[in-house]
């Protein structure tokens, strides 16, 4: 899979390309990331990529032409490698991304990601050149670069061969539509708390059931919205009921602590 990124700050992407899972995937040619700056597509001596907003107001807006030329150059480079790339603009006005969206993005041959700066880009650039608009969350970043890196990290790690053993992506939280179960490693006991017995049992079926029950329970308690979207089976409902009963049983009753 190929990503082309249009950005005024290419150096920022070292965070993704220099070390870690994505860096290894790039070294193994399981994915490609190409960076393009709109500044290379300016014609004035000051290489101007932004200008004041019509209608006044604070901040600056990224100019149409340098962005359009950079996008077209990136798409041409990808096409030369047989990759038809769609164009996505990262902004708070975009569709909120979730794991389902990331799986779809990861399955495509290529994307040109437009990382905005300042107040954003000229609206006509979005109308003319952008196929999809994506948001990583309802907050405002100083630039689209971090959002582009989030998307590329989440998408590239799903590619076959990128993660150690294929299972780990499938067992990810959210890939099942649920939050993740708790994880434990050595030492077995820390202070007065030890690892849940079932995890030491070697009974893989019981361990899988416990992990699913924990994922269901934590999702119900922390993100009930995810359960609405997903729905649960009868078996899962029974696991969840037991979890909630146990949680109710182990929750200190109000006023009980004083009596101690
Ligand atoms: C953003 C987000 C985001 C808005 C103005 C860049 C900034 C600045 N992108 N999800 N949330 N972008 O805040 O994707 O140009």
From TrEMBL:
What reactions does this protein catalyze?
guanosine(37) in tRNA + S-adenosyl-L-methionine = N(1)-methylguanosine(37) in tRNA + S-adenosyl-L-homocysteine + H(+)
| Any Pfam family the entry gives | tRNA_m1G_MT
Q: What class of enzyme is it?
A: transferase
Q: Which residues form the tRNA methyltransferase TRMD/TRM10-type domain?
A: 1-228
State whether keyword Translocase applies.
no
Q: What is its EC number?
A: 2.1.1.228
Per the record, the similarity remark reads: Belongs to the RNA methyltransferase TrmD family.
Q: What is this protein called?
A: tRNA (guanine-N(1)-)-methyltransferase
Task: Give the gene that encodes this protein.
Answer: trmD
């Amino acid at each position: 899979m190929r990503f082309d990124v249009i950005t005024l700050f290419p150096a920022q992407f070292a965070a993704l390309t220099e070390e870690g899972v994505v860096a290894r995937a790039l070294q193994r040619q399981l994915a490609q990331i190409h960076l393009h700056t709109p500044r290379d597509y300016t014609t004035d001596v000051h290489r101007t990529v932004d200008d004041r907003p019509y209608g006044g107001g604070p901040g600056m807006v990224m100019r149409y032409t340098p962005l359009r030329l950079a996008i077209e150059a990136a798409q041409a480079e990808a096409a030369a490698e047989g990759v038809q790339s769609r164009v996505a603009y990262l902004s708070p006005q975009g569709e909120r991304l979730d794991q389902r969206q990331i799986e779809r993005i990861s399955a495509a041959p290529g994307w040109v990601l437009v990382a905005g700066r300042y107040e954003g880009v000229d609206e006509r650039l979005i109308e003319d050149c952008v196929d999809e608009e994506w948001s990583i969350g309802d907050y405002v970043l100083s630039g689209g670069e971090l959002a582009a890196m989030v998307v590329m990290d989440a998408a590239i790690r799903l590619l076959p061969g990128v993660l150690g053993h294929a299972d780990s992506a499938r067992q990810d939280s959210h890939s099942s539509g649920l939050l993740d179960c708790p994880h434990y490693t050595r030492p077995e006991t820390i202070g007065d708390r030890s690892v849940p017995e079932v995890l030491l049992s070697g009974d893989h079926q019981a361990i899988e059931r416990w992990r699913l029950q924990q994922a269901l329970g934590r999702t119900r308690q922390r993100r009930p919205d995810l359960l609405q979207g997903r729905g649960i089976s009868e078996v899962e409902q029974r696991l969840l009921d037991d979890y909630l009963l146990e949680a109710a049983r182990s929750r200190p009753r109000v006023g009980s602590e004083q009596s101690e």
